[in-house]
Amino acid sequence: IWHDSSMTSTLITVAPTGAETAKADCPALPTTLEELVETAKRCEAAGAAMIHIHIRDADHRPTLDLGRLTETVAAIRENTALIVQLSTGGAVTDPFEHRLRVLEAAPDSCSLTMGTVNFGDDVFMNPWPFVTELYQRTQERHVVPEFELFDLGHVAALHRLLDKFGLPYGGKVHCDLVMGVPGGMPGTPDALVAAVSSLPAAVTSWSATGVGRTTLPVALTALAKGGHLRVGMEDTLTLAKGQPVTHNAELVERAASLATLAQRPPMSPDEARDLLNVDR
Ligand code: KMH
Ligand code: ZN
Asked: Which Gene3D superfamilies did the record assign (predicted)?
C-alpha cells in the first residue's frame, strides 16, 4: 500500500549562507554575489528548487542593505529558475525595521519566524506584534511566507496567526521546522513527529531542517513523514565528523540522493511554484 505522501516529490530548499558563520572561519561559505550565484546554479543542477538567502556586505558581515538585497534577487532570477526566498530573520542584532523592509526587495518568498527563541548564547527576537506586522505586509506585497518553527510554541502561534489574519498570499501554507538549535526544539524524530502532528489543518506543505549533527535524523524522518527538505551551510558545516562541507551542492546532492532512495525525487522549481503557489 502506497501512502499518498510517498508518491509526492520532494522540495529541496538550499540555505547556503546564514548569518552566523564567519567567512574567516569557513572560506567555502558563499558571501559575495558572485559566489552566491555560482552556488545557486550548482545547487539547482543538484536538485534544489528554492534558495533561502542571507547576504553579506563587502567585509563578509551580515547585512540587510536594501540595494544589495534587490540586486541579489535580480541576479538569482537572471541565472536560475529557483524560487527566491529572502530571510527576514537576518542576524540576531538586526533591528525590526530593517527586517520588515526586506519585503521591499520583492522576493518570491520570505521566511517568517513564529516566535522568540533562545539561539545559543543569543536571543532571536520575534515578538507577536512584529510577527503580525510582517505577516500583514507579506499579504499586502504578495510575498509568499515560509513560517519558520523553532519550537512547539511557534506551532501554536501559527494557529493563532492564521485564525486571526487568514491565509497567506497565494492561499497555500508552507512551513519549515528548524530543529536542533540550542534553545529550540531538539532535532529528534520524536520532536519532529510531535510538531508535525500539531500543525494547523490549513498547512499544505512543510519542510524540516536539523542543524549540525541533527541534519541526517531530521532529514530521514521528514522524508518518511511526507515532508520536504531544507539543507545548506546556514545549518550544517560538516557532512560527517571531521568532514567539512566544501560546497553547498554537496549537501543538496546528499539530500537529493536520500529523497530519490525514498522514492520521492527532487521536484523542479516549476513544480515547487505550483506547490507553494508562487507567482511565475
Ligand atoms: N539567523 C537567525 C537569527 C531566518 O532566516 O528567518 C535567524 C534565521 C531565520 O536565520
Ligand atoms: Zn535563515
From this structure: Aldolase class I
d(Cα 180, Cα 120) in Å, to the nearest integer? Answer: 11
- Ligand 2 centre to CA of 18 (Å) is 5
Nearest to 271 by CA among 48, 80, 51: 48
Phi then psi for residue 271, to 5 deg, are -65, -35
4-276 folds as TIM Barrel (3.20.20)
C-alpha cell at 207: 519542510
**ipTM exceeds 0.95, yes or no:** yes
Reported in sequence order, the residue ranges of 10-134 that DSSP labels E, i.e. its strands, are: 12-14, 50-53, 55-56, 62-63, 83-86, 109-113, 117-119, 122-124
pLDDT tens over the chain, length 280 residues: 455 554 699 999 999 999 999 999 999 999 999 999 999 999 999 999 999 999 999 999 999 999 999 999 999 999 999 999 999 999 999 999 999 999 999 999 999 999 999 999 999 999 999 999 999 999 999 999 999 999 999 999 999 999 999 999 999 999 999 999 999 999 999 999 999 999 999 999 999 999 999 999 999 999 999 999 999 999 999 999 999 999 999 999 999 999 999 999 999 999 999 999 999 8
How many beta carbons lie within 10 A of that of residue 118, not counting itself?
14
Out of 148, 178, 233, 235, mutate this one to test ligand 1's pocket (max ligand atoms within 8 Å of CB): namely 148
Alpha carbon separation from 280 to 37, 81, 141, 277 (Å, rounded): 20, 10, 15, 9
**Nearest ligand (C-alpha, residue 19):** 1
203-11-171 Cα angle (round to 5) = 35
CA distance 101 to 158: 22
Return d(Cα 234, Cα 41) in angstroms, integer: 17
